Amino acid sequence: MTTPQEVLLKTLKELGDEDFGNFKWFLNQEGVLGDFKSIPQSHLEKANRFTTVSEMVQIYGTTNAIKVTKKVLMKMDKTQLVKKMIGSIEEPADPKRDTEQRVQPEDWLLSVRTQLSQRLSDVTVSQLLDRLYDQRVISGEEMNVIRAQIGADKARHLIDWVHRKGPEAVSLLKAALREVDPWLCKTLNLA
Fold first, then answer.
1. What pTM does this model have?
2. What is the pLDDT confidence band of residue 72, given thresholds at 50, 70 and 90?
3. Left if phi > 0, otherwise alpha if psi is -120 to 50, otherwise beta: which for 138?
4. Is residue 20 in a domain?
5. Helices 49-60 and 122-134, interaxial angle, to 10°?
6. Average pLDDT in the 105-112 region?
């Protein structure tokens, strides 16, 4: 199966050097990407295509990195490349779905803890925190403690905190994750 990151990389490889430079320029511009924040110039200045994909996924999350790529390519009048990119995104198989539904929520969360902590971007964790706070799963103080963490520790703290709160909290986290990053859910067979 081709991952979304591989699709993004393949798409960027189809851009010539000048177009790739223009692509990075759009990523750096404040306000050009609508609701998506820009990537600092220092992160992109000498970035090759691999680094650019990694940076985008880290900052935006997998699903939003695809949306941002589509938005930038449309601004660059690369409609055919957008169609090609969208056409090469595969829907992952769902072999664990029936089994997963019989697993207790807390057990499920522990079984995917490592994968989630490695793959959740800071943006995705922030969006999950907002949703869980709105649903009163976590308090404002808990949210601030989790946000103060760095990198994968942020995701680990979120997962562990929700796990301690029980099956209902885990189910709400799962639902929020499906909304915030459906690609990650499908990739990890969590959808």
1. 0.54
2. very high
3. beta
4. yes
5. 10
6. 73
Q: Where are the alpha helices (DSSP H) in the chain?
A: 4-13, 17-28, 41-44, 49-60, 62-75, 79-87, 97-102, 105-119, 122-134, 140-147, 152-165, 167-180, 182-187
Residue keyed to tokens 């664990």: 96
Indicate the residue among 61, 87, 113 that finishes a domain. Answer: 87
Q: Is residue 112 part of a domain?
A: yes
d(CA 80, CA 88): 12
Tokens in use for 44? 């992109």
Cα torsion for 148, 154, 157, 158, to the nearest 10°?
Answer: 100
Pick the residue with more confidence: 97 or 54?
Answer: 54
pLDDT at residue 77 tops 90: yes
What tokens does 143 get?
């949210």
The span from the CA of 16 to the CA of 166, in Å, is 51
Mean pLDDT of 43-47: 90
CATH number of the domain that 74 lies in?
1.10.533.10
Asked whether residue 111 falls in the same domain as residue 48, the answer is no
Tokens read off for 9: 């990389």
Tokens 């996924």 map to which residue?
57
Q: How far is CA 150 from CA 44, 93, 137, 145, 147, in A?
A: 21, 32, 22, 11, 8
